[in-house]
Prior knowledge:
Layout: E1 5-6, H1 17-28, H2 39-59, E2 66-69, H3 72-88, E3 94-98, H4 103-114, E4 118-122, H5 132-138, E5 143-147, H6 161-170, E6 174-178, H7 190-193, E7 197-201, E8 212-216, H8 231-234, H9 242-257, H10 259-280, E9 284-286, E10 297-302, H11 307-316, E11 319-320, H12 336-340, H13 345-349, E12 351-355, H14 362-382
Helix pairs in contact: 1-9, 2-9, 3-4, 5-6, 10-14, 11-14
Amino acid sequence: MDHIVYLDNAATTPVDPQVVQAMLPVLTGPGGNPSSHYSIGYEAKEQIDTARAQVAAALGCLPGEVYFTGGGSEADNWAIKGTARKLARQGKKHLITSAFEHHAVVHAMQALEKDGFEVTWLPVTADGFVRPEDVAAAIRPDTALVSVMLANNEIGTIQPIQEIAAICREKKVLCHTDAVQAVGAIPVNVKELGVDMLSLSGHKFNGPKGVGALYIRRGVLPDNLIDGGGQESRRRAGTENVAGIVGLGAAIELAVGHLEEKQAHLVALRDYVIGRVLANIPETRLNGDAKNRLPGNANISFAGLEGETILLDLDMRGICASTGSACNSDSLDPSHVLLAIGLPHEAAHGTMRFSFGPQNTMEEAEYLCSVLEEIIPLRRAMSPVWKPLA
């Protein structure tokens, strides 16, 4: 196939060539262990320190508040399980999250439920938001942690984390946010947000896979998730992925350095696709608020069809998209995110997520719409159960 139109940037992003160039000397050099006490070990440690400073500058925090992990899922698990187990010793075994979190948060919470913790699963509105007043109402004297994502990974809605964090601070409850989809897509400053912990992942903003970070506010001490050596200030054991960390640092610096330009480009592509699809293809709906969403996210339901069928038709025409989170791609169950905002099962099954990146062009957006305008009526005409509205 001559040209692939990659529209699944919420799943992962291509590594920026400048990031590759930053990583190459680490991958091809002597490769010292950052814990070793000789020159190439010191050099590796300096490279990690530089990357830590780059992440801290991007987030508006201190370098000592940044801890590198193996990805966003590990960061989420560390924040949630580490905090829960720490505060359980003080009698606090109640946790609060939302009904449409990423599976890293959902499954971490469910694992803790099996260990005797109580979790309150907050509902979300039909347009895809957690209500701060619901958070306030759910907090109890034994609440240890509130974890609400900054931006939803499927429908892209941006949550009122600043308000939620302020409520938590007032009630002296720790607040964590999964910002994996947000960092590199919208401005993210931990001091302005007011959160105690924040998770991110390099491969979501044109960095390498397999490396992430957890911001932990100074003074917050969740239990370790991984024990062993003294890496990451004795809080996350394991020899550091130096090349990945260097790539993460370079990627986040590039992402925040051109953020306004990137946002404007993505919004233009997103709004073009949403507007044209809803105008030209009957019985389609946009999921999530039209404006308060990630700049590159368009999540659209096509009545009467299965998303997997659309996905295959698009793939045959060189377009990569998704029916939801890549982390749940092996399941035929409807998206828990779409069910949480009130979509019936059949509508959730017929939903596609198109997520744009800086490499995408308006010509690709136009091509996507042309293909959808061809395949959706064709597939509906072939369906024995499709009955268009009169």
